[in-house]
User: Fold this.
Amino acid sequence: MSDRPLHLALIVGSTRAGRFGPTVAAWFAEQAAARQDVVVDLIDLAQARLPAHLTGEPGAEDARALAAVSERLTRADGFVVVTPEYNHSYPASLKSAIDWHFTEWQAKPVGFISYGGVSGGLRAVEHLRQVFAELHAVTIRDTVSFHGAAYQFTPDGRPKDPASCEAAATRLLDQFVWWARALRSARSHHPYAA
Assistant:
């Protein structure tokens, strides 16, 4: 069982026009694809079109969008969230996507890739750690962070300092694999009790 590749759901958290998240996510997906131990499922919240509000029952179209994402989150052995920092925190679109789900996150690892200005999105990550702890997920300590992200990449989406960010991505992926294997094995032997 431990040799089976792990399903990593890579979640792009921002839905704003002109967002930088897809550039960062594409780079990280390429790093993960070079490995034999993970399979990446890229979930771009801008394309997922989840309902924005948790009030009432979702309409038919919203319910279909929600079910499609729910299935992908359930199938995942863990997650890596790509988030910008908006007003010292993370985007509302990401919070909404998190809040639409509960059991999908339980007893699974969550890693973070952040980007932003001076702080590199790290304040958003610290807020997300609290949210995921409430959902019984295990957050991975090491992150990948891009300070002044727009200046850290070339126009074709390549990091200007590839050695540094590739080393950070490798650390994150190594830790993801360790946690995802351990938690997948634990869930298969002992169903998680929330």
